Amino acid sequence: MRIVLVGPPGAGKGTQATRLAEKLRIPHISTGDLFRANISRQTELGKLAKSYMDAGNLVPDEVTIAMAKDRMEQPDAEGGFLLDGFPRNVSQAEALDELLTTEGIKLDAVLDLEAPEDEVVKRIAGRRICRKDSAHVFHATYSPPKQDGVCDVCGGELYQRDDDSEETVRTRLEVYHTQTEPIIGYYRAQGLVVTISAMGAVDEVTGRALEALKSGQ
Length: 217
Ligand code: ADP
Hints:
Subcellular location: Cytoplasm
Oligomer: single chain
GO molecular function: AMP kinase activity; ATP binding
Strand order of the largest sheet: 2-3-1-4-8
CATH class of the domain at 2-115 and 181-215: Alpha Beta
Bound molecules: adenosine-5'-diphosphate
Pathway: Purine metabolism; AMP biosynthesis via salvage pathway; AMP from ADP: step 1/1
Distance between the termini: 15 Å
CATH architecture of the domain at 2-115 and 181-215: 3-Layer(aba) Sandwich
GO biological process, one term: AMP salvage
Region (NMP): 30-59
Strand content: 5-15%
Radius of gyration: 17 Å
Largest sheet: 5 strands, parallel
């Protein structure tokens, strides 16, 4: 399957993407994670991306599209993939369409995760991520680790993302509404959008997503 995941920051895209990718046996491709990996390796791309990310803005299309394309062309993505955080505006969606057309392949679904604004702000403010594996995510109040600052899964150090500060979150939400939400209309016109609520327990949302993908609604 080839799936695109959309939703506001804090809707739980990363958490759900990890689980869905495992169940569906397809690689989870997160442009946010790819950028963060470049930042920690201090590559040129990482240095460029960091300034945009810390401000809550989108990294320029040119570098983002090239990076996403490169990842999608890796052998493990041949049979399918779950895109998380890409495309994030209409011109990226158009670039993706172009790439897929060249390869003679199509998307199967665009999964739209819906969550109210006050909820996503709360989720982001308390979010703590493991330095060793970004799939290990905790929340200061909703799902605290057993030991403060330490990952339950692998013992890695937990940290708060630089762009999870309250001020940056506001910008990210605004960017989501103005630039990312329009891709839902773009994909709706192609009959690909499946909308589910991102509220409730993590397992519940995963179940809802798998059901919705199966029935295509
Ligand atoms: P979230 O969805 O929680 O905001 P991500 O990890 O997906 O978090 O993205 C973090 C940041 O990385 C974004 O705010 C943006 O600066 C950058 N980014 C990720 N994907 C893209 C993209 N497709 N285009 C441009 N910038 C991106």
